[in-house]
From TrEMBL:
SUPFAM superfamilies: Obg GTP-binding protein N-terminal domain, P-loop containing nucleoside triphosphate hydrolases
Gene3D superfamilies reported for this sequence: GTP1/OBG domain (2.70.210.12), P-loop containing nucleotide triphosphate hydrolases (3.40.50.300)
Record keywords, A-Z: Cytoplasm, GTP-binding, Hydrolase, Magnesium, Metal-binding, Nucleotide-binding
KW Magnesium (keyword) present: yes
Protein name: GTPase Obg
Residues annotated to bind Mg(2+): 173, 193
Domain Obg intervals: 1-159
Cofactor: Mg(2+)
Binding-site residues for GTP, renumbered to this chain: 166-173, 191-195, 212-215, 279-282, 308-310
Organism: Marivivens donghaensis
Amino acid sequence: MKFLDLAKVYTRSGSGGNGCVSFRREKFVEFGGPDGGDGGRGGDVIIEAVEGLNTLIDFRYQQHFFAKNGRPGEGRARTGESGDDIVLRVPVGTEIIDEDEETLIADMTEVGQQFVLAKGGNGGFGNLHFKSATNQAPRRANSGQEGIERTIWLRLKLIADAGLLGMPNAGKSTFLAATSNARPKIADYPFTTLVPNLGVVGVDGVEFVVADIPGLIEGASEGRGLGDMFLGHVERCAVLLHLVDGSGEDPIADYETIIGELEAYGGELADKPRVTVLNKIDALDDEERGFFKEELEEASGGPVMLMSGVSGEGVQDVLRALRAEIDDNRLRYKKSQEEEEPWQP
Ligand SMILES: Nc1nc2c(ncn2[C@@H]2O[C@H](COP(=O)(O)OP(=O)(O)OP(=O)(O)O)[C@@H](O)[C@H]2O)c(=O)[nH]1
Ligand SMILES: [Mg+2]
């Protein structure tokens, strides 16, 4: 199971400019020789892996990328200006797939890596180029070479920044739908979410990726229910968002169940930064809110936030708390990557 982000883009490299037919014209020179310059090169389509992007969302808004055409050659042996390249900036980890053959064209694995997807067309030769011993005054010039059209898929295996945790029906999918571009299935029966959903969430001008995974149940770490299939994915998140259904029968027991599963799963999952939230507070009165908050804080040994994914109360604060953890963690992540041995084939 992979989280995939896909985008289809249409590209075209620039055509070369036409060569020029021209003859020198000077005072007192009756028959000037040919002086038509060559056309300029068309621009290339280049793909570049850059830092700081983690989704392909920009390619939902812009799907056409055309490099500029070269300019035609001119008299006095002037070569036409080259057309500008166009550069598609993609996140590291993006795969470039050919649309027709569905083959992998390139794998953008390093920051700064560039791949020329389509070269611009060559400019045509001007008539100056065709001057020879037998033909002193050629009237012939080449057209520029046509640009190349390529339709490709960009494919990115997403690494979620934040993973949603909680019992079935805790309101995870509702939260994701309310805060992101994702449209997960929501229902009032457990295990609505059968495959992980990803959403890009924005807060204070920063975007991050949240993964909604199927609800965990007791025994998930041993393979019961659907949760354990996905625990591996949240392992790579910077922060976990644990939603506790405040309208459930026993929110504290639900909380303990999930924590028990995290610990049983092993690895570093239980030590991962976690934001604990009492959800569905729209269904609670003030007294209940206070009571469960206190109980949960005692159980978790940390602060507990209040939220309703349905009414929106508290949602922004939760997003900010996640963002703060992610910012912290991304720095740490980068550091540990730098310390790693360079990869050897
Ligand atoms: N009152 C109230 N109900 C909510 C809230 N959030 C979700 N619900 C309801 O709770 C039910 C379950 O919501 P989902 O978002 O599907 O829960 P989930 O955690 O994704 O469930 P699974 O995918 O089965 O694990 C739905 O009927 C929602 O309408 C909330 O903030 N307040
Ligand atoms: Mg769900």
